[in-house]
Design goal:
Distance between the termini of chain A: 41 Å
Number of strands of chain A: 8
Shape of chain B: elongated
Structural class of chain A: alpha/beta
Helix content of chain A: 40-55%
Number of helices of chain B: 10
Oligomer: heterodimer
Order of helices and strands of chain A: EHHHEHHHHEHEEEEEHHHHHH
Shape of chain A: globular
Strand order of the largest sheet of chain B: 4-5-6-7-8-9
CATH architecture of chain A: 3-Layer(aba) Sandwich
Radius of gyration of chain A: 22 Å
Largest interface: A-B, 77 and 76 residues
Number of strands of chain B: 9
Largest sheet of chain A: 6 strands, parallel
CATH topology of chain A: Rossmann fold
Chain lengths: ~350, ~350
Amino acid sequence: MRVLFIVHGMGVHGHNWAEPVVAKLEETASRYQYFKRKQKRLADEVEIVPIGYDGEFTQHLETWNQETDALRTFAEANQALGDVVDLLDWLDDVDDTERNFFWSHVVDVALYRYFKTVMRPVRLRVMKGLVDHLIPRMKGGAIVQASIMAHSLGTSVTHDALADLSSAPITDKQGRQSDAFMAGNFAFENIFMVANVGRVLETSPTCDASTVHPKSVRPSDAYCAHYYNFRHRLDPFPAVRAFEPQDWGNQFHSIAGLDHIRQPNVHGWEHYLDHPRVHIGLLNAIMHGVIDDDERDAAIEEYPRVDETNPCAVATDGAADALEHLVGGIVRKDDPIRMMMAGVKFGAKVKELRDACGQS
Amino acid sequence: MRAARVSVVACILLLAAAAHATGQGFALRDYCDATTVDEDKAPQNPEHPSRVYQDLAPLIVAGRWSDAIGDIQRRFESTGATVPAPERASMAAQFTDVLAALRAREAVVDGQGTQDTKTAPAVRGARFDLVFTAPGYSLFQGTGNDIAITTGLGEDAVRALCWTALSARRVLTRYFEEGRAIVGAALGEYVTRWDNYHRHGYSQYLWELYLNGLWTVNERNWNPPAWQLVIAHPSVAVQLVRPPDEGLRRIDVIAVEPAGILRFVRDHTFYFGASGLVTLSSAADPGLGVLVHVGRIGKVGYVFRQDAADGRRQRGAVVSLDLYKLIAGVPDKLRRLKETAEKDIESTRAGLDQ
């Protein structure tokens, strides 16, 4: 049984957040002979399991919203105290999460990185999501070939959750201890990190010190056989303190020079997946080499860098210099604040491009 | 005639080339990819991992793990004749290692003579994982017993190596089943406690959320904090005062708690504690006092303030807005209930009169 867990990135995610990602995976798989010949969908071969955690962020935003609403109402009735309440004005915008890039995206990063009372339950929720799914499927000695793909903030969350799950025995309320999911006893076949921000947001354990590495690093405590890292040239998020481990061996696969443009948001998960270098790497790793070298090379060769049929892609290509300048300005920075600031600028640029091509 | 001969030779060469490309007529994943192997729902070969696991079921149920793994080793020794000597030696070394770990654990008995059922750390459940690294598979990577599985080993050897590894992996996967359930239960408990902490706890502003995790949440402690600091926490409350020669008066205030501390109990479903209190209102001078927290039921405080006009000290009670609404709503609710009851009685009486 093959299972692919998918972990979302920053932002507000509705109940059906995984559908576009799954649809993109299906669409990309359908381009290749193996699936055409067998007349099968990817979902027939791989169980795709979404793991979400953004409820941890939204519940805090909602609480603050309620609190500030009450204070605001009070202030309106008590003009003399307006100044006191104005101190809390900056919390007002939490209601606009749909439209406000900062509150819907960057605040998640800040809460996760700096607030341990948010970070810990997020990690636990992801660990529980993985384990709850694996336990029944591994019943009776069934072999589950598990892989995990994460995007953006999800790469940091996934790293941290896997590092916690794999590094120490876990004890329940009755004092029973178990090492069943520790490295050595369990391992993922593949980890796919899309727009990896693991290093810039790392706390403890760090990416270098944790067990979340391929077997070609330290086989004894490796939590995956293969580690894939995908990075787009114009995406500012993974550019800050980029994930570029040295000497990770042949089971670390770095696909870092992506430069395709299909839409203004080159940070988008589906945008990454659209490129053959990304999805063929993923499909071949999960399905054990179902797309041969010739078909892979042809797909990469024939894939146009810019989708000329999409005016937004053409407009984005025209703005590539500005995006490159944005990435160039932060590429040597190494702190999360810089990444968040670049993220806000990037969000504004994407909005501007979408507005210009009528896609907003 | 010559053309026909050339065609036949060309066909033979093409067929040979095709056989070479698919790995001497067989595909590695048919034997080494667990999911592909499992697709055969009714395997004929008695060495197929599904058949082997079925055969070993009585040993597994009895917790005779070393016997089950020992059986797989014996099967490998009898079927793996085509496996080259170095690979056979690697497989043997790994079996020796895992059997020693299992037997050591099985030898441990408690005071009542019951076998210790805990898993042994040295077993290493992922030991027999087959790793796909194009164009082949690897086994025991980095252990000194590395085996590279390629089509060059031949179909019989590949089958023996991969099926043995898959059979052993299934047994070891089953070996950790109880341990996995413990992890699942433990993570469920942690998540529930955090849910309680955030849902049933006292709301926290950004700075409080930050400070409360700073020292208490760490790598070793995955539980939510047992104590919560309240720092510069504003909220809307109701202050009840009785000025001289007047009745009880309600003043809406902002209750600012400069500092306080709360204690969580019962798996973070309830908390209690106290904090300092400053009340601010445009209708009255600032007041100072103490606020007592009783879970989400509400908070009740005592406050005093200096009247600027006559310099006299005034005392009052402060209640959270929720609690005030609850209390203030009771007479209304009772009145409505009474009215409904009276109407019911009237209509019943009218019915009886008819």
